[in-house]
TrEMBL record:
<feature type="transmembrane region" description="Helical">
    <location>
        <begin position="21"/>
        <end position="48"/>
    </location>
</feature>
<dbReference type="GO" id="GO:0005886">
    <property type="term" value="C:plasma membrane"/>
</dbReference>
<feature type="transmembrane region" description="Helical">
    <location>
        <begin position="230"/>
        <end position="251"/>
    </location>
</feature>
<dbReference type="InterPro" id="IPR036259">
    <property type="entry name" value="MFS_trans_sf"/>
</dbReference>
<feature type="transmembrane region" description="Helical">
    <location>
        <begin position="314"/>
        <end position="339"/>
    </location>
</feature>
<feature type="transmembrane region" description="Helical">
    <location>
        <begin position="54"/>
        <end position="74"/>
    </location>
</feature>
<dbReference type="Pfam" id="PF07690">
    <property type="entry name" value="MFS_1"/>
</dbReference>
<feature type="transmembrane region" description="Helical">
    <location>
        <begin position="257"/>
        <end position="278"/>
    </location>
</feature>
<feature type="domain" description="Major facilitator superfamily (MFS) profile">
    <location>
        <begin position="20"/>
        <end position="404"/>
    </location>
</feature>
<protein>
    <submittedName>
        <fullName>MFS transporter</fullName>
    </submittedName>
</protein>
<dbReference type="InterPro" id="IPR020846">
    <property type="entry name" value="MFS_dom"/>
</dbReference>
<keyword id="KW-0472">Membrane</keyword>
<keyword id="KW-1133">Transmembrane helix</keyword>
<feature type="transmembrane region" description="Helical">
    <location>
        <begin position="180"/>
        <end position="199"/>
    </location>
</feature>
<dbReference type="InterPro" id="IPR011701">
    <property type="entry name" value="MFS"/>
</dbReference>
<keyword id="KW-0812">Transmembrane</keyword>
<dbReference type="GO" id="GO:0022857">
    <property type="term" value="F:transmembrane transporter activity"/>
</dbReference>
Length: 407
C-alpha cells in the first residue's frame, strides 16, 4: 500500500484543516445548494407533474447519479496529466452551472430533460476526482478522514439549504420550474467565483514523486491488492444501494406522510450528515476507514428494514432519514480517505476516479433496476428485494476482504 507524505498547509480555525479544504468546502456548499434544489424538485416534477412511470424515472435518476461516471476517469486523468486539478474541476463546475439555465427550455420533454441531466452529471463527473485530489494532497494521510469529513460537512450545509429554497419557491411562486432553475444557477455561479479566487491551483504535495500520469497508469493501480479490494467493495455495495431519490419516495409512500413533505425529506438526511460527517471522519482516522465504511452500509440496511415496518408515520420517517444520514456520514468522505492513502500523489486524481467510477456505474445499474422493480412489483416486494440485495452484498464484501481491513 502506498502511503504518501504531505505537509499540512496553513491552518484555519474550522476543524484545524488547511485553507484549501475550507475553500473547497465553501465551493461545494454553494454548488450543493444549487444541486439539491434540483434534486428536491425532480421527484415532484417528474413523478407528479409530468406523471412519468417509475421505469422512466429510474432511467432519468440513473443519468443523474451515474450515467456519466466514466467522465470521472477523464477528469482525474487530466487533473494529474496537466497538474492543474483546479482548472479541470472548474470546467466541471461551470458545465453543471450552465445546465441550470437550459432546464426550463426543454419543458416537459423527457428526452430533453435526460439530455440536460446527462450534461449536468458530466460536469459532476469531471470535477469530483480533481476536487478530492486537491483535498487529499493538502493534508497528511493520517488526517484524511478528518479533512474529508469537514469538507463533506460544509457540503451538507448546502444540501440543507437547497431543499428549503425549493420549498419556499414552490410555496410562494407555484410549481413553475423556471424560478427554481434560475435561482439554482445563481448559487452555482457563486461557487465558481469562490473556486476561481480562493482555491490555489496546486497543493504543495503535488510535487511528490510517483508514476507518470496516464489513464493506463491509473487503471494499473488495480494491480495493487488493497486498492483493488477497495474498488470491488465500493462497487458491490454500490449496486445494492437504492438511490436517494427513490429512498425519499419510498419513505413518503411507506410512512404515508403528506406528499407536500416530500421535497423536505432530504433535510433529515442532510442534517444528520452535517452533524456526524466530521466526527465519523475522525473516528475513521483512529479505528480504520474500512470498519467505518462497512458499518455505514449496515446502517443503510437498517433504513430498508424500517421501510418494511407495518406502522408508518412521522416517527418511522424520521428514524429512516437519521439512519440514512449516518450512512452517508460513515461512507461518503471515508471512501475517498480510505482509497486516497493507497494512491501515489502523481496519480491521486486518476486513482480516486477509478474507485468512484466503479461505484457510480454500480449505482446507475441499481437505479435502473429498482425503477423496473417498482414499476412491475408491489411496493413491499421492491423494498424486501432491496433488503435482501444489500444483505447479500454485505456478506459478499466480507468474503472479498476475508479479514478486517484497516487503513
Amino acid at each position: 500500500m502506498y502511503i504518501a507524505s504531505a505537509r499540512a498547509g496553513t491552518r484555519t480555525r474550522l476543524g484545524a484543516v488547511p485553507k484549501t479544504v475550507v475553500a473547497l468546502g465553501v465551493v461545494s456548499l454553494l454548488t450543493d445548494v444549487s444541486a439539491e434544489m434540483i434534486t428536491a424538485f425532480l421527484p415532484v416534477y417528474l413523478l407528479f407533474s409530468l406523471n412519468i412511470g417509475y421505469v422512466q424515472f429510474g432511467l432519468l435518476d440513473g443519468l443523474y447519479t451515474g450515467a456519466t461516471a466514466v467522465l470521472r476517469l477523464v477528469g482525474g486523468h487530466f487533473a494529474d496529466r496537466l497538474r492543474r486539478p483546479k482548472l479541470v474541476a472548474g470546467v466541471g463546475y461551470g458545465l453543471s452551472a450552465v445546465t441550470k439555465l437550459v432546464f426550463p427550455a426543454v419543458g416537459a420533454s423527457a428526452l430533453g430533460i435526460g439530455g440536460v441531466i446527462a450534461a449536468d452529471r458530466a460536469g459532476k463527473g469531471l470535477r469530483t476526482a480533481p476536487r478530492d485530489a486537491l483535498i487529499s494532497l493538502s493534508v497528511p494521510t493520517d488526517q484524511l478522514g478528518t479533512a474529508f469529513g469537514v469538507h463533506r460537512s460544509m457540503d451538507t450545509v448546502g444540501a440543507l439549504i437547497g431543499p428549503v429554497v425549493t420549498f419556499l419557491i414552490l410555496m410562494n411562486l407555484g410549481t413553475a420550474p423556471t424560478p427554481i432553475f434560475v435561482v439554482s444557477f445563481g448559487f452555482a455561479l457563486l461557487g465558481l467565483i469562490v473556486l476561481g479566487f480562493f482555491v490555489p491551483e496546486r497543493p504543495k504535495a503535488t510535487a511528490s514523486p510517483g508514476p507518470a500520469p496516464s489513464i493506463r497508469a491509473g487503471l494499473a493501480l488495480l494491480k495493487d491488492v488493497p486498492f483493488r479490494r477497495a474498488g470491488v467493495v465500493a462497487a458491490l455495495l454500490g449496486i445494492a444501494t437504492v438511490s436517494d431519490a427513490f429512498v425519499f419516495v419510498l419513505v413518503q409512500r411507506t410512512t404515508e406522510v403528506p406528499l407536500g413533505v416530500l421535497p423536505l425529506l432530504p433535510l433529515g438526511t442532510a442534517l444528520t450528515f452535517l452533524l456526524f460527517a466530521a466526527p465519523l471522519g475522525r473516528l475513521a482516522d483512529v479505528v480504520g476507514r474500512w470498519p467505518v465504511f462497512f458499518g455505514g452500509h449496515v446502517l443503510l440496511l437498517g433504513v430498508y428494514l424500517l421501510l418494511l415496518a407495518p406502522a408508518g408515520g412521522y416517527g418511522v420517517a424520521v428514524a429512516a432519514l437519521i439512519m440514512h444520514g449516518l450512512f452517508y456520514a460513515a461512507t461518503d468522505g471515508v471512501l475517498s480517505a480510505w482509497t486516497g492513502a493507497m494512491i501515489p500523489p502523481s496519480l491521486r486524481g486518476s486513482g480516486l476516479a477509478v474507485v468512484q467510477t466503479g461505484q457510480a456505474l454500480a449505482r446507475l445499474v441499481s437505479s435502473i433496476g429498482f425503477g423496473f422493480l417498482l414499476q412491475y412489483a408491489a411496493l413491499g416486494t421492491a423494498v424486501l428485494t432491496a433488503v435482501c440485495a444489500l444483505a447479500v452484498a454485505l456478506v459478499a464484501v466480507l468474503v472479498v476482504t476475508r479479514k478486517e481491513t484497516t487503513s
